[in-house]
Amino acid sequence: MDKKLDHIGIAVRNLEYSMTFYIEVLNAKLIDRYKSEAKGVESDIAILEINHSRIELLAPTNNTTSPIARFIKQKGKGVHHVAYQVENLEQAIKELDIKGIRVMEDTRRINKHGRRLIYLNPADTEGTIIEYCDYPEIEKKK
Fold first, then answer.
1. Fewest Cβ atoms closer than 10 Å to its Cβ: which of 6, 35, 89, 103?
2. Residue 107: which CATH number?
3. pLDDT at 141 over 80
């Protein structure tokens, strides 16, 4: 199954400061900004576009339970995950299973933009947090 880079997620401590850098220095355009209090997300999120490439800035909203807060405590701020768009998320998960790559079922969700997503187990990806995602509602409209 074909995959293409969808976005890069970056863990930040201060969303306003980080947005200013991306907008003023890298000429990014703010696409959306929202807060997700969903279990396992608990972050302020800014979606930015730079020359047709997407970046998600992720700032924890709960320093106790947010996975972004845990990530920053363990590894510091910086690249959190790399997301790849697949044609069909369910089929991609089956292909991963055949190859012995596990997914983290507790990360499966649909975000506010209709993106279905799941994270692969970093133990199977050389430690890199990888997201697989698809956009079934957008695909239906095409």
1. 35
2. 3.10.180.10
3. no
